[in-house]
């Protein structure tokens, strides 16, 4: 049988649509994957209440998974610790107990010397409608999971902390404030802040972003930063550009545009940034959900394409197998877990994660689907990938690499 070119085109389109539909409704069910319940108040065990438990920051130290949450307006977030081996939540710290008026810990954690963690908060609005001041927090986790939180102070009055990273070699932290996008540094040894307005969105760009497209700061500010092997700090700035900061001379340099899809340039920003073992930088563009690579030697940005059709690329992490594991997609769609092999430039769309959740009261286990996943990290040996939900009832979903 001989098909005409028109029929061949129709068949090809139907096959593509069938494959796309299959991927959209495929669930990733790893054999050894498991969930850790953090939010269902069905027992007297430690749990976080609704609307205060959206997991926005994650890291792992040994057996301890450490998380920071976002809360609804006028509520306060938590710092929590869960055990990989015990598969349960072991400790909670209400940020209100340390610092009043804070709403979220979405900066991510930076792990400094001696496993000391740093994270930043965004505050609730004040009674007069103005922005409250976010704070830098120092977090120390005991061997049994105990949590000690110390308030370091505010980088810029009336600003929260949107993104955070650091350089252990120089004992220095770097961040981006919210809502103005002011770049700042904090010297851990001298306990001093310094702020820079070099990458603050210009009036001309604000006119486009605010007045024409009605974007909010969370739509265009860099929500991730990363330090390369030379100590340069990379992030994104408006509109749709990558920059780096050189601490040696305190200079800022615009590197390149982010990858873009026509008509969506204003939504371009670095939503996730990580460094590979060979020093290359990888990032996710929120606007179109593209993965990109930054060559730190040539300062060139390479578009690696889209793992799924939806926008957003919310998190990236390296596994022990050398692959990048990431979270793509968000509202009005839902999250897909994907992997990318830098050696072969190959994607695998693993679908929507669906893990068995077992805990007191649900010993039989229930299949829990992570429709809105926001954060992803790896254990220190890279053998486990840990994901956190961004829901009213948020849980941890964990799987071993290679499952």
Characterize the structure shown.
The protein has 403 residues and is mainly beta. The protein has one domain: 7 Propeller (Methylamine Dehydrogenase, Chain H), CATH 2.130.10. The chain is built from three helices and 32 strands. Strands 1, 25, 26, 27, 28 and 29 form a six-stranded mixed β-sheet that branches. A four-stranded antiparallel β-sheet has the order 2-32-31-30, with no helix packed on it. A hairpin with a 5-residue loop joins strand 17 and strand 18 (233-237). Residues 16-23 have low confidence and may be disordered.
Write the layout of secondary structure elements.
Layout (H helix, E strand, L loop, with lengths): L4 H20 L2 E2 L5 E3 L17 E8 L2 E7 L7 E6 L4 E7 L7 E3 L5 E2 L5 E4 L1 E2 L12 E6 L5 E7 L6 E8 L4 E7 L4 E5 L4 E5 L6 H10 L4 H4 L5 E2 L5 E5 L3 E6 L4 E7 L12 E6 L5 E5 L4 E6 L4 E4 L9 E6 L5 E5 L7 E6 L4 E14 L2 E8 L3 E6 L5 E6 L6 E5 L3
Parallel strand pairs: 1-28
Antiparallel strand pairs: 2-32, 3-4, 4-5, 5-6, 7-10, 8-9, 9-11, 11-12, 13-14, 14-15, 15-16, 17-18, 18-19, 19-20, 21-22, 22-23, 23-24, 25-26, 26-27, 27-28, 28-29, 30-31, 31-32
Proportion in helices: under 10%
Q: What is the CATH first-level class name?
A: Mainly Beta
Low-confidence runs? 16-23
Mean of the pLDDT scores?
Answer: 91
Can you tell me the CATH superfamily? YVTN repeat-like/Quinoprotein amine dehydrogenase
Radius of gyration: 21 Å
**CATH structural architecture:** 7 Propeller
Distance between the termini: 43 Å
- Main β-sheet description: 6 strands, mixed
Q: What is the CATH fold-level name? A: Methylamine Dehydrogenase, Chain H
Shape: globular
Number of domains: 1
> Which percent range describes the beta-strand content?
35-45%
């Amino acid at each position: 049988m001989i098909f005409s070119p028109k029929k061949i085109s129709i068949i090809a389109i139907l096959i593509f649509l069938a494959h796309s539909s299959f991927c959209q409704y495929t669930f990733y069910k790893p054999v050894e994957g498991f969930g850790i319940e953090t939010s269902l108040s069905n027992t007297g065990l430690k749990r976080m209440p609704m609307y205060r438990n959206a997991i926005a920051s994650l890291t792992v130290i040994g057996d301890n998974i450490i998380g920071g949450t976002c809360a609804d307006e006028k509520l306060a977030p938590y710092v929590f610790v869960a055990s990989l081996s015990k598969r349960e939540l072991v400790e909670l710290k209400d940020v209100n107990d340390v610092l009043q008026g804070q709403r979220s810990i979405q900066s991510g954690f930076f792990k400094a010397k001696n496993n000391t963690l740093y994270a930043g908060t965004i505050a609730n609005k004040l009674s007069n409608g103005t922005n409250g001041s976010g704070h830098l927090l120092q977090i120390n986790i005991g061997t049994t999971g105990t949590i000690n939180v110390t308030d370091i102070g505010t980088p810029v009055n009336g600003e929260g902390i949107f993104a955070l990273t650091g350089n252990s070699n120089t004992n220095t932290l770097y961040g981006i404030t919210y809502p103005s996008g002011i770049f700042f540094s904090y010297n851990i040894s001298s306990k001093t802040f310094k702020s820079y307005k070099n990458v603050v969105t210009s009036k001309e760009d604000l006119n486009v972003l605010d007045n024409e497209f009605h974007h909010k700061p969370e739509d265009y500010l860099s929500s991730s930063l990363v330090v390369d092997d030379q100590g340069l700090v990379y992030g994104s700035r408006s509109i749709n550009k990558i920059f780096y900061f050189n601490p040696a001379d305190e200079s800022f340099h615009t590197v390149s545009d982010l990858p873009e899809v026509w008509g969506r340039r204003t939504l371009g920003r670095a939503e996730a940034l990580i460094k590979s073992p060979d020093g290359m930088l990888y990032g996710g563009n929120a606007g179109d959900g593209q993965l990109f690579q930054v060559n730190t030697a040539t300062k060139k940005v390479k578009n690696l394409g889209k793992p799924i059709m939806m926008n957003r690329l919310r998190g990236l992490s390296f596994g022990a197998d050398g692959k990048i594991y990431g979270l793509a997609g968000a509202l009005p769609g839902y999250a897909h877990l994907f992997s990318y092999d830098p050696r072969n430039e190959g994607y695998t769309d693993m679908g929507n994660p669906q893990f068995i959740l077992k805990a007191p009261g649900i010993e039989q286990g229930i299949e829990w689907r992570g429709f809105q996943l926001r954060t992803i990290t790896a254990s220190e040996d890279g053998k486990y990938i840990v994901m956190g939900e961004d829901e009213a009832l948020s849980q941890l979903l964990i799987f071993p690499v290679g499952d």
